[in-house]
Amino acid sequence: MKNYNIAIVGLGYVGLPLAIEFAKKYEVVGFDIDKERVEELKEGKDRTKEANITALNEVIVEKGIGVSFSSNIEDLKKCNIYIVTVPTPINQFKAPDLGPLLNASKMLAGVIKPGDIVVYESTVYPGCTEEDCVPVLEQFSGLTYNKDFFCGYSPERINPGDKVNTLTKIKKVTSGSTPEIAEVVDQLYSSIITAGTHKAPSLKVAEASKAIENAQRDINISFVNELALIFDRIGIDTTDVIEAAATKWNFLKYKPGLVGGHCIGVDPYYLAHKAESLGYHPQVILSGRRVNDNMGMFVANKIVKLMINKGHKIQGAKALILGITFKENCPDIRNSRVIDIYTELCQFGMEVEVYDPHADVKQVNHEYQIDLIPQVGEQYDAMVLAVSHHEFLTLDFSALRKDEKSVIFDTKAFLDRNIIDARL
Question: Which amino acids are annotated catalytic?
Answer without folding.
Answer: 263
